């Protein structure tokens, strides 16, 4: 997993020991919190960095002492990626741990309060909900009936959550390391990518819309893949070719196939070849041999063909052929 | 031989027979011809290929010194060598391949690649027509002339560096996908790869991706710093720095602030204060 080497340190918003300045800076990024200090005598030692983009803002905060912050409702979606220390969060009524193994997501208009220890430091991803709604509507083709609400707690055991975190950290690294600003159009594309990954990686009240749409290829796409396999059963077909024929990605095709047919693409291709081979063995010409059919079915190895055939149809290909040719045929 | 290679979950071919390898590549890309056309004694080839929709990511190693001739394909190809050495010749221009030294292959001409035995690379292939559509969508202009990449590329361009580092990240992400990512996820990452390719390379439309005010490079920032340090005993204005570095005041200020986090004037004031405190 990527670890942020320098957390947006080229983009300071504020370095201060003044609590009012700190709250004013947080208001510019997210919302103005009410601050409760751990011990009255202590002073904050705040560093806040931030890099605003078109739809999202990358942020980084540390406070130098233990603090309690209570935020008012914000218009933004905020996701924390703690990198050091720990704390506890409350998102509406839901308690959530703040530590480097977890990420907390706060949806718009939710109550958010945190209790942080002195060495807590986090990276922040703030998103205007409009870009998420636009993406979701574009993907599903449906107008959302209610605003997006995300599940507050997430860990990185889920590869999708890890992918989002890695892609987010990658952008943090890139903007921080680049000697000149990255092209605006490129940054916008990256923001859109993060928005899509965000919708995929976080559980939300519209997740089911996305899941409904993931499984199925259009029937014509499945049929076309199947036709192609049948038409080219005599040679090795790659998943890539099938993706080209059906116009979907390899990953989507494999997944859709397994769901629609209950077998993997490779198993399906194999089954088609064996069925064709059986058909030819059952309707032989005088010249038909098992070896020729094995070869025409994409098998370089006749023994392997005999094994697969026997496993599928419960008899050797030679037996099928002998029966089809009949007792008279073998004499010719 | 590495225990595991990038994209091993998307195997295309594993073979010691070069003809079989060429056939397999022919099915997903274009069939290469051996150059010179003689039998290679033995290869130990591993080719993986993950096709998204209009973009594909691949890994290949051949385990034998080899020279392959490819026809014109209509695809843009970028090579990211991971080990060994090689060479690409296209249109009479040769590019050296090695870790950190990749190249872009234009879609409109045949080319020849030669590899050392231990050579391995990641490959990014982009469909020319899809890339043109993406270019039109990003810039909002009609694209009548086909995209032509320049023979000379600057791989230190920030977007080129980003692409260089993004490809391994995406490959790692795709390798960890279980269950696979949905189509809409894949298609968005494909859009990003196309945007990175368009922004990171010099071609006949790359001026459209320049930022509104082209920033002075790091070199100019460094010159400005050296000049300030050398003249710390007196006040230095932006105009003077611009004259010394040969870029505009605005541009220098912007790139200085961007790359250092503070302005050249703040830096000058600090240097002056430091000099004065040393003299006391």
Task: Furnish the topology, listing elements before pairings.
The complex is a heterodimer of chains A (332) and B (280).
Chain A: E1 12-16, H1 19-29, E2 34-37, E3 46-52, E4 56-62, E5 67-71, E6 77-84, E7 87-91, E8 94-98, E9 102-106, E10 112-116, E11 121-127, H2 129-140, E12 153-155, H3 159-177, H4 184-201, H5 207-213, H6 219-231, H7 239-246, H8 250-261, H9 265-282, H10 290-296, H11 302-313, H12 317-329
Chain B: E1 11-15, H1 18-28, E2 33-34, E3 45-51, E4 55-61, E5 66-70, E6 75-83, E7 86-90, E8 93-97, E9 103-105, E10 111-115, E11 120-127, H2 128-139, H3 158-175, H4 183-200, H5 218-230, H6 238-245, H7 249-260, H8 264-279
Antiparallel strand pairs in B: 1-3, 2-5, 3-4, 4-11, 5-10, 6-9, 6-11, 7-8, 7-10
Protein model, in words:
The complex is a heterodimer of chains A (332) and B (280). Helix content of chain A is 45%, strand content 20%. With 332 residues, chain A is an alpha+beta fold. Chain A has two domains: 12-206, Sandwich (Jelly Rolls); 219-329, Homeodomain-like (Arc Repressor Mutant, subunit A), CATH 1.10.10.60. In chain A, the strands form two sheets. A seven-stranded antiparallel β-sheet of chain A has the order 1-3-4-11-6-9-12. In chain A, strands 2-5-10-7-8 form a five-stranded antiparallel β-sheet, with no helix packed on it. The longest helix of chain A has 19 residues, at 159-177. Chain A is elongated, with a radius of gyration of 30 Å. Chain B is an alpha+beta fold and 280 residues long. Chain B has two domains: 11-209, Sandwich (Jelly Rolls), CATH 2.60.120.10; 218-279, Arc Repressor Mutant, subunit A (Orthogonal Bundle), CATH 1.10.10.60. Chain B contains eight helices and eleven strands. In chain B, a hairpin with a 2-residue loop joins β7 (86-90) and β8. Chain B starts with 10 loop residues before the first strand and ends with a helix. At the A-B interface, α3, α4, α7 and α8 of A face α1, β3, α3, α4 and α7 of B.
